[in-house]
Specification:
Length: 232
C-alpha cells in the first residue's frame, strides 16, 4: 500500500488539480444514524414517514422536512423542525462519533493539506453539523473552501454546490476530483464536470465513477490520483 510517507511532497497529485469532499458518507458514515434520528423524531411527532425517508437522505433539510411533514409549514416551522432533528442527531452521534469516521479519511485529508493540495468540502448538511463533524474529526481549517447547501440556490443533486466549491478554490471543475457516496451527490459532481471517486459507504457499487473505494485506505487510491493530469 502506497502511503503518504512514501511519496515526495505533493507528488501524489499533479499541480492544477484539487480534491473536493462530500461530508456525510465520506468523512463520516452517518446514514444509519440520520435514518434512526429521523425515525425517532417523527415518532415523537406521531408522524409516519410514508416511505419517503429513504428517498430523501442526502438532500437539504428544508426539502426533507417539507416532504415528511407537509408543504403547509411556514419557513420558521421548517427551520425549527430541521434544527431540532439535527440537534437530536448530534446528541446520538456524539458518544459513538469515532466509530463512524470513514477509515483513513483523517490521515488522507491531513496528508493532502500538508502537501498544499487545494481542498474543498461541499455538502448539503446543515452548518452546525459541518462544524460538529470538522471539530470532532480534527479537520477544521484543512479545507480552503467549505460550501453547504444553504450557500447555493439549488442543493444536490444540482451541480451548483460543486461548481461553487471549485470556483472558490480557483480550479476548473474538470480538474477537481470529487469524493461522493450518494447517487444524488454523484450526479451533482458529474453534472458539474468533475472527476468522480465513489466512496462505497451508502451503496455497494458505482459503475459511473472513475474509481470506487470502500474507504481511504484502499491501496488503489494514491496510485490512481498520481495518474491524473490537469486539463488545459
Amino acid at each position: 500500500m502506497l502511503s503518504f510517507r512514501q511519496v515526495k511532497n505533493g507528488s501524489f497529485l499533479a499541480p492544477g488539480l484539487a480534491l473536493i469532499f462530500d461530508m456525510d458518507g465520506v468523512l463520516i458514515d452517518s446514514m444509519e444514524t440520520h435514518t434512526r434520528t429521523w425515525g425517532l423524531y417523527l415518532e415523537r411527532l406521531g408522524v409516519q414517514d410514508k416511505g419517503l425517508l429513504h428517498l430523501m437522505l442526502g438532500k437539504r433539510n428544508d426539502d426533507i422536512v417539507r416532504a415528511l411533514l407537509g408543504d403547509g409549514l411556514s419557513e420558521m416551522e421548517v427551520f425549527d423542525h430541521g434544527a431540532a432533528k439535527e440537534q437530536l442527531y448530534r446528541d446520538l452521534m456524539g458518544p459513538a462519533f469515532d466509530q463512524h469516521v470513514v477509515s483513513g479519511v483523517r490521515e488522507f485529508v491531513r496528508g493532502a493539506a500538508e502537501k498544499g493540495i487545494p481542498l474543498g468540502l461541499a455538502t448539503n448538511a446543515e452548518p452546525l453539523n459541518v462544524d460538529f463533524v470538522l471539530e470532532r474529526t480534527g479537520l477544521e481549517g484543512k479545507f480552503q473552501s467549505v460550501v453547504d447547501g444553504h450557500q447555493v440556490e439549488n442543493p444536490k443533486p444540482s451541480p451548483d454546490i460543486y461548481l461553487e466549491a471549485a470556483r472558490r478554490l480557483g480550479v476548473a471543475p474538470a480538474n477537481c476530483i470529487v469524493f461522493e457516496d450518494s447517487p444524488g451527490g454523484m450526479k451533482a459532481a458529474q453534472d458539474a464536470g468533475a472527476r468522480l471517486v465513489a466512496v462505497l459507504t451508502m451503496i455497494s457499487e458505482a459503475p459511473q465513477a472513475r474509481l470506487a473505494i470502500p474507504d481511504f485506505n484502499d491501496e488503489r487510491l494514491l496510485p490512481w490520483l498520481r495518474s491524473q493530469t490537469p486539463l488545459p
